[in-house]
């Protein structure tokens, strides 16, 4: 009688296709590990909803969703109908801010059966976590334009970082490093960005005093990006500001060839408001409706959700399941060189659970 | 009787070792192509100078250097003696700002004989140029700290972009694309950074009207970083803001395995103040003094300097020379798996010119 209330928002395009497979696999895990998922589906955060209502979310979205234990999210965006900046700022980014999901967590892992772009790397060689600050920093809306329309036209945008905001993401990252028994790498640029980044470094050092057993190093973002390509095996947990984390959490999965199957967890660690779990890939209008999308990102996101809900064993089982199916290479979607359909790969993974 | 006045600043560590080889190769090119390089060496911008004078540059550095046609720079930094942020902001970054070197140009090229980290890529597959804005944007010193020492502590740093600053770097980038007969890629993040980056996009579009024959695309920086790894063959000229350019111009050379031999040109295209040419690598205290540094970065930077001075043929000859020597694999420094000394590789390249 462990019961979790899950809000299901499939969104647009392949979001709806991979969501079915995600739910299939999670349902199987619930059966096997003896818990209940009480799901409720919502049609907002989609282009269809926007067409009908002229907005991405109902007015009471916050109240509607805030009672859930988690949000299981597909993909949003359909640029032919609604521009991306409207659909994203009007839904996904609302959730991240509104529910104070200040952690964005993205695993970077070389998977069996998924070809990566780097020479000489094997599954097991690359396995780390990017911990991104998800609510402040470089993503502020403070600033503006002056001398508009003239040669002196000037735009200004402020990066705002708070001790509260930095410390809570650092604490989370240090705890992850602790949990993994490993090291922490901090992304900085204090040699160039002269106010906010030295402050970030200061807080990293200060927080480190509470975690004396964790080894910490820091890299400037330019050389860190380079090291993701040259030495991805060096990393264990990487913590970064909102913008740097955004870059690193796409670059990391690119280095493992997993950008199409990587998950993203938007977490409010207090548990007072729901966290959101989504695949990194978008709605992919170009292949939507064909039933050939790869559901692994959605399923992997589901595993992160189970882990967050406290069902670590079930999470582990789901991860092992999709890794085993990928390794066997028998049921591969077209992006992995096979001819299996989205549904078939989902079913194979559910069975492996 | 084409004569160019070159200020030579070797700096610290391996800077002094690779500089000798750079000058050797340039000297040979001058002989062959019939021009004169009038060089003058300076000992400032070095840890030794700092120890003697308590500053990185003499007070009259601007007057001393501004009459030269170009500055040929080695590497600065010796952290045991002077912290990096002092040595860099006190020298290299002074030059970039003081001489209004608003273009930072970095070639990304897969070279024969230099092993890269990406699977299945051959010399010829990857050959593009990163054009970085070098004087404004995210590298501003405007901002500060409030509520110091309390839980409400907040730091703010402003990104400042001007129409003048953006337009001049875009014009340069479009012209490079024109010169290479190719395409232009703009690095943006207008889906997340909501004021400065949409303005950047606007200027890219506006400038594009003066270059109707150039095909332009834009990528958000997160996915662009990913594409550098996944599809480096897509790019021809990539233009980016100061911070994004900093990241991309380390990431690019990482993807080609050339981070140890890549050059960087800091250009003031007006020619009214000197431009500066340097290898990307630093002073490398760990191998300094052993005579085993790889001089190709310094030599490649020299080729860019010749090109800038209008000696395109000589520049081409120097580039061909080091590519040929690398391809033969006969004279390789330890970083490339050989046992040649810095001096031997320099001499081999000079002979090939
Ligand atoms: C040392 C640092 C301030 C500098 C920069 O960020 O510009 C360096 O990374 C570079 O690219 O030359
Ligand atoms: C769509 C965009 C605003 C978003 C971000 O930058 O946060 C995306 O890149 C992501 O990482 O989820």
Automatic annotation (TrEMBL), chains A, B:
Source domain of life is Bacteria
CC cofactor:
Mn(2+); Mg(2+)
This entry's Enzyme Commission designation comes to 1.1.1.83
UniProt keyword annotations, A-Z? Manganese, Metal-binding, NAD, Oxidoreductase
Q: Name one Pfam family in it.
A: Iso_dh
Q: Which SUPFAM superfamilies match?
A: Isocitrate/Isopropylmalate dehydrogenase-like
> Molecular function terms in GO for this entry?
D-malate dehydrogenase (decarboxylating) (NAD+) activity; magnesium ion binding; NAD binding
Q: Where does the Isopropylmalate dehydrogenase-like domain start and stop, copy by copy?
A: 5-349
Residue ranges spanning the membrane: these are none
Question: Is this entry keyworded Cell wall biogenesis/degradation?
Answer: no
Q: InterPro entries, per this entry? A: ICDH/IPMDH, IsoCit/isopropylmalate_DH_CS, IsoPropMal-DH-like_dom, TTC_DH
Checking PROSITE patterns in the record gives: IDH_IMDH
Q: Which family does it belong to?
A: Belongs to the isocitrate and isopropylmalate dehydrogenases family.
What PANTHER family does this protein map onto?
A: D-MALATE DEHYDROGENASE [DECARBOXYLATING]
Q: What's the protein called, per UniProt?
A: D-malate dehydrogenase (decarboxylating)
What organism is the protein native to?
Answer: Nesterenkonia cremea
